Amino acid sequence: MGNRLVAKSNDVNFPFTFFGVNNSQINAFAFYGGYIGIHTGLIAKSENESQLASVLAHEIAHVTQRHLARSKEAATNRAPLTLAGIVGSIILAAVSPQLVMASMMATSAGTQQAMINYTRGNEQEADRIGMNILANSGYDPYAAAEFFTKLQEQVRYKSSIPAFLVTHPLPDSRVTDARLRAQQYEKKFYTDSLDFLLVKARVDARYVKSQADNSDTTNLVDRIKKTSGNKRFALEYQLLLTLVDNKKIDKAFSLWEKLNEYAPGNLFLLDTYSDLAIAAETPEVALDALAKAYKNKPNNYVVTLNYANVALEAKQYGKAIELLEYFLLKKPKDLLATQMLVDAYKDAKNMAKYNITKGELYALMARYNEAITFLDRALAMMGKSDKAEVSRIQALKYQYRERQRYIKILKEPFNDRHYFPQPKMLKKPTDIRVTKVE
Hints:
Blueprint: H1 2-7, E1 17-21, E2 28-31, E3 35-39, H2 40-45, H3 49-64, H4 67-93, H5 98-136, H6 143-155, H7 163-167, H8 172-182, H9 194-208, H10 218-225, H11 229-245, H12 249-262, H13 267-279, H14 287-296, H15 301-313, H16 317-330, H17 335-347, H18 351-364, H19 368-382, H20 387-411, H21 416-419
Parallel strand pairs: 1-3
Antiparallel strand pairs: 2-3
Helix pairs in contact: 3-5, 3-6, 4-5, 5-8, 6-8, 9-11, 10-11, 11-12, 11-13, 12-13, 13-15, 14-15, 15-16, 15-17, 16-17, 17-18, 18-19, 19-20
């Protein structure tokens, strides 16, 4: 969905990265470099794919229009004026102490109002450009106003408001603008894709209801009876996940076979088959199906990690290590795959590799002290037998120390010496060498 929207966007200067966040709050956010996070709560509350796409299009517009960078620049430009106002207030104290507080409050209020006005301008621009992206991508342009209206209805009689409305203020004028802007486009009846329906069903079963009692499936069964087509398939998939999580193995396996007849090779079902085999404490039964899927889709994220996970559960550590090492050659920063490889080395009793990979895992989390500690343990175990690997570990240690130093610099107040390093002083006068030039 994200890539489809980006393809219809202007001013795209770098790749975008979309990722899910396990958070029940209705929210999404954009960050520098095209990183866009989507809360599971937002997916759960989106009634259709166009509504979710409208939020993503809005966040994409924030990035392409450089709103974060522009906001930071505007704040920097306001800083001298704010400082001048505060200094003026202090000087004013010598004349009239009673006016100091009023003057400082006025300065602060002016700064805050400028920030609010700038934020509103950004939101309006993101709404306008986001709707254009939404319509050009084939989604329903009226979905943005529908989603805004839904949010308004949810907070009308509540004291707390969704996180989305804290970071994206929603006055009545914004909803009206969205409705009027949508009328400039042709109404499109976009049919939700099966992938969207399955993701929504998965979020509902595994994340949104994870804190509630999910053992009662009566309501879900009733909803299935009243639906048809892809929506029925997605609800049955949600029921399947609920049965697996509640260890109702026989019912889950029967339902999985039924769904697999409709959609053989579906990756959502393959993933659940792995969960089902592990829950039944017979992980080896899923190995053949995963091996076949891996042959058709080598190094696919879902297939590879499920295959490696089932191999670990079946105590086939060598197979799991082979799969994960090859996968990490192409995606070296994948946290889950690295964690699984750590477990695989530990179970295989390969403690040198375990310590190296554990160090790399901590480095991915920017915990460089712990990363270096594990690399030192690995070096102590290896000795000097493998010179190439020892050199690689030493290089990693140097790299992690440099990153540590850089983070420390960023945390410190601005200091010219960080950007204009002083020349190194000679230790002794005798170190000076004079060459006579003829």
